[in-house]
Amino acid sequence: xxxxxxxxxxxxxxxxxxxxxxxxxxxxxxxxxxxxxxxxxxxxxxxxxxxxxxxxxxxxxxxxxxxxxxxxxxxxxxxxxxxxxxxxxxxxxxxxxxxxxxxxxxxxxxxxxxxxxxxxxxxxxxxxxxxxxxxxxxxxxxxxxxxxxxxxxxxxxxxxxxxxxxxxxxxxxxxxxxxxxxxxxxxxxxxxxxxxxxxxxxxxxxxxxxxxxxxxxxxxxxxxxxxxxxxxxxxxxxxxxxxxxxxxxxxxxxxxxxxxxxxxxxxxxxxxxxxxxxxxxxxxxxxxxxxxxxxxxxxxxxxxxxxxxxxxxxxxxxxxxxxxxxxxxxxxxxxxxxxxxxxxxxxxxxxxxxxxxxx
Amino acid sequence: xxxxxxxxxxxxxxxxxxxxxxxxxxxxxxxxxxxxxxxxxxxxxxxxxxxxxxxxxxxxxxxxxxxxxxxxxxxxxxxxxxxxxxxxxxxxxxxxxxxxxxxxxxxxxxxxxxxx
Lengths: 359, 116
Description:
Distance between the termini of chain B: 47 Å
CATH class of chain B: Mainly Alpha
Order of helices and strands of chain A: HHHHHHHHHHHHHHH
Largest sheet of chain B: none
Mean pLDDT of chain A: 84
Helix content of chain A: over 70%
Number of helices of chain B: 3
Largest sheet of chain A: none
Number of strands of chain A: 0
Structural class of chain B: mainly alpha
Oligomer: heterodimer
Structural class of chain A: mainly alpha
Largest interface: A-B, 80 and 69 residues
CATH superfamily of chain B: NADH:ubiquinone/plastoquinone oxidoreductase, chain 3
Number of helices of chain A: 15
Number of strands of chain B: 0
């Protein structure tokens, strides 16, 4: 597997050769900044187009097909429309908090986005407490959503925000506990190290067998709820709450929430791919050497995106298949089913790890 | 630990928001209408205080979350070394998890998980 850190190290030494180190680091930071923004924008465009097409095919429709070939330019038209919409300022709203709320949501999204290992040696934030950091910064999003609802000074947003707050904090527990099982299996919290181990010893979902599969299923359900999507889209249930916590946002204020929602879908799927499905590690079947050699030729980031988009598709499938839950059903699903099951799962995984029963 | 990159990522988010907000402010049309500033309420004039009452259940779940989140946080350092600590570590943590499950069972029994 190609190690991307060779390229970054070579680039750093190249820059240091012609300029002092602080300017070199400055330029590298600028490149990282551009890389994040460009990738973020491209992924948002791809995801929104994919969501609309997948949704259309599930409902036996064609989906966007007017703007550009196969409706490919639809998303660009949407962005342009959002940019040129009037920004309505509410008289009674708390202006400062109202304007700050999308920033919190986007900051959480960017920070979690930066944790993802794209390829071997190609990750932006690679802390030794990576998984912990991921859970911690994804919690910032809740603050943004509650602020948005509170500062709007309107009835629908505040109901939406309260629902969303309760939902996000509840399902965060399951996300944390399923990550805990994987950390137990790998013995490290560093995300790049977790992927490296999977490249060496096989994907976590295979290596951890029963508890890992259970954890993967719980992670998918909780992750879907974390993204405010699918059967768990109560905070923005259109038929009862108009648009939930972003009812009072117009133009780009709404655009930020929309963007963060789709990127959170990707981040959630990418994290599932990273911790369960092997991240950039290629598919290796022991015994089939020819097959493995061919698979090892495919670059790591292709594997990563293939797995991430497979999970994205799964989540879209769930979204367009199941009917919406009620708030009490939603909370009892988490507290009475997922939480006890994930606690049991932690004990099961601990037994598997301590007794050396991993595959 | 690379904190330069952490700062870069936070600044990227800030820069992204600022650029797009400035762009949107430049491009967006402006027209004043008193009714536009009203909170949305299905098109009828808004009634009563907007910061109304909401269900107490949300607070109960928030308190429960606080308890469980702090306690799962303690499990993370153990999870990293779970393999090397072996059965002895597992027994110690099983006791901890037992208290955690007891807490959930108590909340369940007391009806904190029911939506009244």
